[in-house]
UniProtKB/TrEMBL annotation:
InterPro entries on file: ChyE-like, Class_I_gatase-like, GATASE
Protein name, as recorded: Glutamine amidotransferase domain-containing protein
Domain Glutamine amidotransferase: 22-121
SUPFAM superfamilies hit by this protein: Class I glutamine amidotransferase-like
Domain of life: Bacteria
């Protein structure tokens, strides 16, 4: 799916983001949700000019803003997407990647967007690998065995980060004041 899809429900969900933003309620958009947030804020969601995708495990680096919020970020994160997004006016970039630069963003006090998938369970990943295998031939995509092998290597630090991040987003735990 894409935030650019013409389906009525994509537009309705993107428009709905005005509600939590206006009420200053916590919002966390993951992958498509982050892309919808960017579109709602006037940004662009586009494919890489060279046609590269992020399907598998890829490196990520926190920015200075990201490090100020949380000292420990995972070095590798899991992706399954063909598009990325730019940084709309008023957003802070929290983490960057190589192919799609904008990996984690924050807008205001309570809106967050992640281009990657920290929430995936093993069963979900297995399903994506089976049903998405036709995408492994796309430029920069990794083979299914690499997805599952990467989980064994990279999942523990990613889950530890996710737990701390969710506290930051939803419990407003300020570890650094």
């Amino acid at each position: 799916m894409s935030a650019n899809d013409p389906d009525a429900f994509v537009k309705a969900e993107t428009d709905w983001l005005a509600v939590p933003l206006k009420e200053n309620k916590p919002f966390l958009g993951i992958c498509l949700g982050a892309q919808m947030l960017v579109r709602h804020l006037g940004g662009k969601v586009e494919a890489d000019p060279e046609g590269r995708v992020e399907i598998g495990w890829y490196p990520m680096r926190p920015t200075e803003h990201g490090r100020m919020l949380m000292p420990h970020w995972p070095k590798m994160v899991y992706h399954f997407h063909r598009e990325g997004f730019d940084l709309p006016h008023g957003c802070q970039l929290l983490a960057a990647g190589d192919v799609y630069r904008n990996q984690a963003i924050r807008y205001g006090d309570n809106a967050w967007g992640l281009q990657f998938h920290a929430e995936l369970t093993r069963a979900m990943m297995q399903r994506w690998v089976v049903h998405g295998a036709h995408r492994f031939i796309m430029p920069n995509a990794q083979q299914g065995r690499d997805h599952l092998e990467g989980r064994m290597i990279f999942d523990a630090p990613l889950k530890a980060w996710l737990s701390e991040f969710l506290d930051l987003v939803f419990l407003k735990v300020d570890h650094f004041s």
